[in-house]
Structures are given as structure tokens and as C-alpha cells.
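User: Before I run my own analysis I want an independent prediction to cross-check against. Here's the chain; please return only the C-alpha cells and, at the end, one sentence I can use as a sanity check.
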Amino acid sequence: MLLAFTEQGSGPVVVLLHGFPLSRVMWAEQLKTLSESYRVIAPDLRGHGESPAPDAAYTMDLMADDVVELLDGLGVSEPVVVGGLSMGGYVALAMALKHPGRVRALMLIDTKAAADSPEAAQTREETAQAVLKAGNSGAVVAAMIPKLFGKSTRELHPDRIEPLKADMEKTSASGVAGALRGMAIRPDRREQLAEIAVPTLVIVGEDDVIAPPAEARAMAEALPNGRLEVVPDAGHLAPYENPNAVDQAILGFLQGLN
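Assistant: C-alpha cells:
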């Protein structure tokens, strides 16, 4: 799978993996800030942005393999820092467990280690079928917007919602369905967190209702080398809603790595 990507800066490699049904567009502020000291690579995961959208379930392991293939193609053989938001966090976890030699540190952002409940998995399948029938992602995007953004963003910065909404609406029906079906069958990683020895930064927006702070805290505590940052004035899209706070947390974490 040849993924579309943005690459910016030089230095130690930092890979940023977006959420569903977004694209690398969501990392614009982080690309700008982090690339002053690091080589930042932000791909569009399969089915999203400008990457191909085959008709299949996109498992988290498969998407992790795509990222490793991209790094191989770019000549990046050394272990890298991998950060992922929401679905991107599921992919980052899969990469750390399936390809541990490729990961020197993790950033798990507004994400969770638990699997879907049977009810949630069923809802994803029903949504996938509805999106394929409609031929576009409009309905799923409209339903997600209130949950993605925190209260402060919706009330004080409503202008920031439209650009990401437009980006999500570009995601094809096959891409949305493939990701939904892959997330529905993802494994529960909570017991495996103890196997991840690399330094891990867990970031969560204080108003995140999809992957709430309590879940992030439990994840950070289960990781042998985990630490938690709760970001004010942000919901499920903390890097986009409060980029300054997230950038400072990430820079502090990166500078502390050996």
C-alpha cells in the first residue's frame, strides 16, 4: 500500500497518525512546530486523505504494516517515535506490539486500549453498510462532529470546526467502511500494555467524551513507562483544538528521550 504523506524537517523521526475519518491535514500545527527540530512524517492511513481506499476491512495490524512499509520506502530503518490520535492510536499500539524494533517511543493521543463492546461493533457494521449504500461519508461525519470537539471549541471557536468537517467529508464511502470494520474487530490491548516498555506519553483532552480522561489515566498507569498529560480546552481532537498545549507536551516528552 503506497500511502500519501507529508514529510517536513530533519533530525530524529516522529511519525504522526491521524484519527477517523480524518487525514494528515489535522496535524498542520504539529508539522509546523515539531519540524523545527525533528523529521516529521504524517501519512494518510489507507482509505483516508489521498491514500488508496480498497474494499476491505482495514485491521489495525494491516495499517501498522502500511506505516512500516512507508518508513522502509523512505529509508528509515532506525526506531522512531510514533504518535497516533484515536484510530491512529490503535494503529500506533499495533505497531509497537507487532513491530517493537521500529518504535523507540509512543504517543497515544485521545485514544483507548480497550476493544469495542459487541454493541459498538454492531453499530460500526450498521454504519458501514449505511455509508456504502449512501455512497458518501456525510451522515457519519454529521453524527461525529458533536462528539469530536470539546465544549470550549464548539462555543468559543466554532470557525475551527468547518475545515476539519470538510476534510472528513472527502473520505470515500469505501474508506469509511473499511476503517469502521477494522476498528470493530480490533483486539483488546489492555493486557498487552505491560509489554510496551518504551517511553509513552498519553495525551487526552479534558472534555474528551469518546476516550475520556479516566480511560487515558488507566492506560498510562498500566504502561511500564507511561505518563499522562490532560489538555485543557479540548475534546477528542486535542492536537487540533489546543495545539499550543499539545505541542509543548510533545516537545517536552521528545526532549526527554535519550
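Sanity check: The CA atoms of residues 17 and 84 lie 4 Å apart.
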